[in-house]
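Notes to self, Peptidase S45, penicillin amidase:
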Amino acid sequence: MSRPLCGFLFAGLSFAVVLPAQALVEPGSQAARAEIRRTGFGVPHIVAANERGLGYGIGYAYAQDNLCLLANEVVTVNGQRSRYFGPDKATLEQRNNMASDLVFQWLNTPQALADFWKAQPLEIRQLMQGYVAGYNRSLAEQTTQGLPQPCAAEWVRPISTDDLVRLTRRLLVEVGVGQFAEALAGATPPAPQKPLQVNAQQVQALQLAAARNQRFALERGSNAVAIGRELSANGRGMLLANPHFPWAGGMRFYQMHLTIPGKLDVMGAALPGLPLINIGFNQHLAWSHTVDTSKHFTLHRLQLDPKDSTRYLLDGQSVAMGKQQVSVDVKQPDGSLKSVPRIVYSSIFGPVVQWPGKLDWDNKFAFSLRDANLQNDRVLQQWYAMDKADSLKAFEDSVHKIQGIPWVNTLAVDAKGQALYMNLSVVPNVDAARLARCSDPRIGTELIVLDGSRSECNWKVSAEAAQAGIYPSSR
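result:
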């Protein structure tokens, strides 16, 4: 059995406030049990006998502290902001509600949710099921007592495991498709034999999106320092984690301590809706992440069929674009709802995006975006393996094997004084030779644009990689 973290976290800290433990028992035949004890600043220390019980405690504690935050994010990832708040307002990240809704309706289809859920190991499913039950119990209790004023509204509801999958997929595409919400939502075929026309509202939205994209790395970049035995005072590892994630919204960290006696004992921080630790430490090691500089998506310039701008040429053959109809319920001035349909076009690479002046969809070319993390269904399994690692080798091996880190660097140290840096995230397998043959230099170095008219310019597939089209961990 692993040594409880509480024993050395608070030893000698006479000012630490330890509140009475709260024992939770889920009603019903699948009764989950958890114990929550809060210390200074309300940090929850959650103990359970299994993953379902642990998830139950996490969801309950999170809802106690962040009900309005998560409820708002659930509205976002369900593509329902226009329904409740109107189409012209914006998310906390300053994404237009209508554009945001269209993207999440496209992203989180029933099939995509089912595929992600099917890929999860039993432990992860149980964590998520427990989280949902715990959150919903806290919601029911708070509803009886009166919901907090910021979210005392009709858009607050019980959640499901599908909602947690939606939240996870939103996190995955944060640096890919998520940065092109307005460009995806506004992509429409050009009128035949007419110059490209873009309305002023779309131009303004894309200008805001461009500014947001440029700020992303700066605002999320984060810092971390991993120090090994040669430089530490006591010969053990030392880690400084300085995440730059925001204090509000869907990327706000939440501190907690999770224990399954004999199996798991980890403390750190997690993002909303995730029933595990993203950055933190256990008895054996500590780790953190920083946003990496790797490219996690590519654009593909499609050469259009001269007869039809919704068809493109691939290896000399005319191929029809895929058409996915999405509908967004939009709140009208009188309070009624109107369903607004849109078509999202796609190629074999991914959705078509349109950025006037940079990525134009005219009668000759269009641009399609392929995001490596759209197929990353391993991310939760990855972080849970890191949470449980009992050595730096086990920690590192899990990252090489699972390849679930989405878009961050990893720094870690252990009690033996070893230090580790890894840039092993989900990255398209496009080497220098392929770039030289296939990239379009006219776009500049900010974006990687490949020739979408040749199959040989698509991502290379390696049998060693955990996912088709990404670099294997050995590279």
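- Residues 51-77 form the longest helix (27 residues).
- Residues 1-16 have pLDDT under 50 and may be disordered.
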